[in-house]
Amino acid sequence: MDLAPKQSDVADSSALKSTAESRLKNFMKEVTGRALVMMESATQSQHGIATDLVQEAFISLHKSYADKSTEEWYPLFYTILNNKLQDWRRKEARRAQPFSFFRKVTLDDEDLELNDVIDESTPNPFDFIDRAVTADEIKAAISQLPARQQQAFMLRAWEGFDTHTTAEIMNCSEGSVKTHYHRAIQGLRTSLAHLNPNMGGSSE
């Protein structure tokens, strides 16, 4: 029995690999900029670390999910990226506190969920502030938010994921996403209020 692969099978496999690589290149072009902004905010403007996290997420995506559709890649990519960010943060926390392995590392202290928080289905980062405030000013303010608030805001307002998908990416409940997003908006309004005297500090 001839166990050698047929020529057509080899050609099909090569074509599929080429197609996946082409799709990945297009996908990377589309999301790299936004992903870097998110990671730079989360790592306190450490561009090298942010770039490494994004690149590692792309490698893992292609290695494990090359056969998925491009639409499926979006939440998968950000889930992978979030996991790599959390791994990096844990390492940094342990490096800063050498004996922290004797206790649970707490990365965020805002896990209590608020009740009846309204989370719009299609948020826009400019909807809750004056249009005169620039994107750079918003990004600078975002970098001052706690990490989970940053993630919730960027995934919801900048990437446009719904609450359910954002919760899956962040590995938390939908209520937590609403809480983090709600508090992020409060924090941004407060930190940007000095740029516009008419901007209120309340999120209501």
From TrEMBL:
<dbReference type="InterPro" id="IPR039425">
    <property type="entry name" value="RNA_pol_sigma-70-like"/>
</dbReference>
<dbReference type="InterPro" id="IPR013249">
    <property type="entry name" value="RNA_pol_sigma70_r4_t2"/>
</dbReference>
<dbReference type="GO" id="GO:0016987">
    <property type="term" value="F:sigma factor activity"/>
</dbReference>
<dbReference type="InterPro" id="IPR036388">
    <property type="entry name" value="WH-like_DNA-bd_sf"/>
</dbReference>
<dbReference type="Pfam" id="PF08281">
    <property type="entry name" value="Sigma70_r4_2"/>
</dbReference>
<dbReference type="GO" id="GO:0003677">
    <property type="term" value="F:DNA binding"/>
</dbReference>
<dbReference type="GO" id="GO:0006352">
    <property type="term" value="P:DNA-templated transcription initiation"/>
</dbReference>
<keyword id="KW-0731">Sigma factor</keyword>
<feature type="domain" description="RNA polymerase sigma factor 70 region 4 type 2">
    <location>
        <begin position="136"/>
        <end position="185"/>
    </location>
</feature>
<dbReference type="InterPro" id="IPR013324">
    <property type="entry name" value="RNA_pol_sigma_r3/r4-like"/>
</dbReference>
<comment type="similarity">
    <text>Belongs to the sigma-70 factor family. ECF subfamily.</text>
</comment>
<protein>
    <submittedName>
        <fullName>RNA polymerase sigma factor</fullName>
    </submittedName>
</protein>
<dbReference type="InterPro" id="IPR013325">
    <property type="entry name" value="RNA_pol_sigma_r2"/>
</dbReference>
<keyword id="KW-0804">Transcription</keyword>
<keyword id="KW-0805">Transcription regulation</keyword>
<dbReference type="InterPro" id="IPR014284">
    <property type="entry name" value="RNA_pol_sigma-70_dom"/>
</dbReference>
